[in-house]
Amino acid sequence: MGESSRVPALRHGVGILRHLARQGGPATAASIAGELGLPRSTVYHLLNELEREGLVVHLPEERRYGLGIGVFELGTAYSRHAPLARLARPLLHSLVDEVGHGAHLAVLHGREVLYLLEERAPGSPSLVTDVGVRLPAHLTASGRAMLAGLPAAQVRALFPDASAFTDRHGAGPQRLSELRAVLADVRQRGYATEDGEVTPGFASVSVAARDHTGYPVAAMAVTFDRNAVDERDWRALAAQIDPVAAELTRRIGGPDAVVPQFERRTPRP
């Protein structure tokens, strides 16, 4: 097989794997061919090759195909390599040098955020956002930045009733309607904030990074002494975080041409 024919085959094979990943269960070859617009003979050939490599499993009684154990092995290898943290670390370091405040990277884990990286500015105090710490997503700037990018139904599933809203210092949303208002504001501005809801006396500004589907896979945030940065300057701080989050989006396979949030919005007066 020549070089020119291998590249489309690889692209179509990846397309099949992504299609299967989006399904709720195994799919027929005919449905795969129809969804991807490929000849059925081509799909059967690619499925056979993927099955040989353990990436696809054939269920003969159901006449369907599902993801194979090889995909799980690749997924666990991805976790071991910790690529998200590796890709974000130099970006976070540069961000801290630029803004002069500590910064961190977090991911969404259910109703909590999990902190993967923390970069402290010289002389900055130790905060609760240390690596491995989990905090309520609805109270943190990082969590709000990511929650704002989720479908409304998913947010509702995460916060079905008042018991889902953990309280730390008597501040922050305590019901779904309040959280929705906060997230609507985040989407309007293009960045998220929190003010003393995690640690009294400290505030944070955050922007989310997204994968190729637009899903908010992580968020970068800067945390600072509430008295050190006037609230009128928080937008300018967000504008410094924004291109860094956009670069992380590009590095993890997001859109090829990432337009920072602040180039897509008309500033509020």
From TrEMBL:
InterPro entries: ArsR-like_HTH (IPR011991), GAF-like_dom_sf (IPR029016), HTH_MetabolicPath_Reg (IPR050707), Tscrpt_reg_IclR_C (IPR014757), Tscrpt_reg_IclR_N (IPR005471), WH-like_DNA-bd_sf (IPR036388), WH_DNA-bd_sf (IPR036390). Residues 7-69 form the HTH iclR-type domain. Pfam families: HTH_IclR (PF09339), IclR_C (PF01614). GO terms for biological process: negative regulation of DNA-templated transcription. CDD domains: HTH_ARSR. GO terms for molecular function: DNA binding; DNA-binding transcription factor activity. Keywords: DNA-binding, Transcription, Transcription regulation. Residues 70-254 form the IclR-ED domain. The keyword ATP-binding does not apply. PANTHER family: HELIX-TURN-HELIX TRANSCRIPTIONAL REGULATOR, ICLR FAMILY, HTH-TYPE TRANSCRIPTIONAL REGULATOR RV1719. This is IclR family transcriptional regulator. It comes from Phytoactinopolyspora halotolerans.
